[in-house]
Each structure stands twice: as C-alpha cells, then as structure tokens.
Request: fold
Amino acid sequence: MTNPRIEIVPLLNDNYGYLLADETGEAAIVDPAEAEVVLAAAHQHQLRLTTVLATHHHGDHVGGNLELAARIPRLRIVGYAADRDRIPGLTLAVEPGDVVQVGQLRGALLAVPCHTRGHVAYHFGRALFTGDTLFAAGCGRFFEGDAAQMYQALHQVFGALPDDTLIYCGHEYTENNLRFAASLEPNNPAIHAAARRAAKLRAEGRPTIPTTLGEERSYNPFLRVRSPELLASVQRAHPGVEVTDPVAVLGVVRAMKDHF
Ligand code: ZN
Ligand code: FE
Reply:
C-alpha cells in the first residue's frame, strides 16, 4: 500500500482539511469547510483536485462542497451511503468495506457513528483521517450516539490499527485537550511531553497534526479508560461510576470534558 502525499489545509478558525495526492498529483480534499482556501492550496501545491472525502455532514466539514463542485468539472464527492441525504453534493455513496479510490491511491471507509450517526473515517496507507471522532488528545462530542458507540469506534475499529498509524483529525483542539488530560492523569509524563510539543508548535504557528495512534494511546484520556490514575480521578469526581466498565468510564470522561 503506497502512502499518500498529504498537505494540511487550515480552514475557518480551527478546522483542518487535508489534501491527499498520488504520485501524479491527483488529489482529494478531506472535509473542505470552505472552497476558496482549498482551491488556493491545491494550486499552490500543484495538485489536481478530483475528489472530496466527507467524514460527516457538519457545516464546518462539508461547507465548501457545493462551491467546489461548481468550480471543478466532474468533481466526485464521496461520503457514507448511510448519510447520503445530509452530505451536500454527494456523487458517490460508499459502504464500509468498499475501496475508496483517489488516482492510484486505494483507501478504506471505516464507519464510526457517534459524533453523528453517519460519521466515517478514511484510511489510506498509514494515514487515518478521523474527522470529529478521534482528536489529538481528545474525541468528539456524542451528538447522535452514545458511549458504547464511541468505545466501539476508538477501541475496536481504530483499536485494530497499529501504533504507527498517523492521525489527521478535524480540529486543532490539542492544547486544550491536553489540559483536560493532565487534570485526570497529572502524573502521566506523556501528557506533559505532548503539551510541551504542542505549545512549541502552536507558538510557531504550526499544526500539532499529525500525531500517531501510539502517541494517542499514551496520553489521550478516551483511549486510557483502563489507566489506574485516570480511574481514580473519575471515581473521585463521580463516586457512583462503575470503573470496571470501560464504556461507562468513557461516557463519564466525555461528560467531564463537556464541562471542563
Ligand atoms: Zn462535527
Ligand atoms: Fe467539526
């Protein structure tokens, strides 16, 4: 499996779109929140944009779809078949297990419902585009799903992937996420190392993306629902929670983050 060339495209306030391209320069954009910036980035990197990959229907991820379709003849807009009615301009409805093709690149769509019921991730080579499901040091809100579904997404679907998987997520939330992580595991050195790295990158105006799944497993509280220190913190804040149930712990951690 060849790895795509990837260019990060900052959009809106804190969103990221991602250009992924094969060796000929044919490219897809993951989550084009706005069209103009994406077109300029494709031009700057001398890429031929043929495809949109939508992770989910929220406006800060699909906001540029229709304008891109108006500007690029035969643009393909790829999304999860289960959410075909909510992805603007969808031209290619894909199911889990289908091959997603971008030029010479072959990827897979992974269904990870919870943030929205039609949320998907795209997996190309080592790169995983996680949208608003897994963030660096965090996870998305449970707008249309529950803790059991997010557990399935993070621990079963992404759980099957190796540590060197590169995580390209939908937002730059890393520093705030790490502050929350540190509140639950103040003695986890991986959190403090990641916070120092993120602060340095942000001070230089650079993204904290990508991280790796292995790094996420070392500091992301939503992947650490079996950490003794995290469980002690959760138990202190919510004495009733059944800390032997990782799904319950994940739900409580998400609720704590909602109010952090
Ligand atoms: Zn969203
Ligand atoms: Fe979002």
